[in-house]
């Protein structure tokens, strides 16, 4: 059996990082934990990611990119757009729960590069949502986009804390 190619190994490390960061947080995770999860040596992690921070940012970027891709793939009338985007996000959250946790963790990390990556990710989602809502003719677009994003962040916190009562699922 051959050794996986570098590209696949980098992907395995990223996925291991997503899982370990989601479970242990940023500060309690070491590259040794990630290497162990990926079944490789710790120095091999550094072949693809120079620092733990770089790996965390790559994982965080993946989470934000998946959200944007999910929203871009929503096809809906203006009247159903918000509901369809919420449904798409719910499905994404079920498929990639570690990425949901990572977003909450990213908000709490104080390192400058991670704060910048978190700001960029959230800003990109906000910009896309505003544009999409505006193009759909949704009234009060700023308020609707802010409410939509706030609900998404609250959903993430609810999931992360295992506190489902934060979300009124009857009125999604």
TrEMBL record:
Residue ranges for the DNA-binding region feature of this UniProt entry: 30-49
Q: In its keyword annotation, does this UniProt entry include Chaperone?
A: no
What range(s) does the HTH tetR-type domain occupy?
A: 7-67
What are the GO MF terms of this UniProt record?
DNA binding
Q: Which residues form the signal peptide?
A: none
Q: Which InterPro entries match?
A: Homeodomain-like_sf (IPR009057), HTH-type_Tx_Regulator (IPR050624), HTH_TetR (IPR001647)
Going by the UniProt record, its keywords in alphabetical order are: DNA-binding, Repressor
Pfam families per UniProt: TetR_N
Protein name per the record: HTH-type transcriptional regulator RutR
């Amino acid at each position: 059996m051959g050794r996986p190619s570098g590209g696949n190994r980098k992907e395995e490390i990223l996925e291991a990082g997503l899982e370990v960061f989601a479970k242990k947080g940023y500060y309690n995770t070491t590259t040794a934990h990630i290497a162990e999860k990926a079944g490789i040596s710790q120095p091999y992690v550094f072949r693809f990611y120079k620092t733990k921070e770089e790996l965390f940012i790559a994982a965080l970027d993946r989470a934000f990119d998946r959200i944007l891709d999910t929203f871009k793939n929503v096809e809906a009338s203006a009247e159903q757009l918000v509901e369809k985007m919420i449904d798409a996000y719910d499905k994404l959250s079920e498929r990639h729960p570690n990425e949901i946790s990572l977003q909450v963790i990213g908000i709490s990390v104080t390192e400058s590069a991670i704060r910048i990556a978190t700001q960029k990710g959230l800003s990109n989602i906000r910009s896309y949502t505003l544009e999409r809502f505006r193009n759909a003719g949704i009234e009060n677009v700023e308020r609707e986009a802010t409410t939509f994003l706030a609900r998404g962040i609250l959903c993430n916190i609810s999931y992360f804390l295992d506190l489902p009562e934060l979300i009124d699922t009857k009125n999604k």
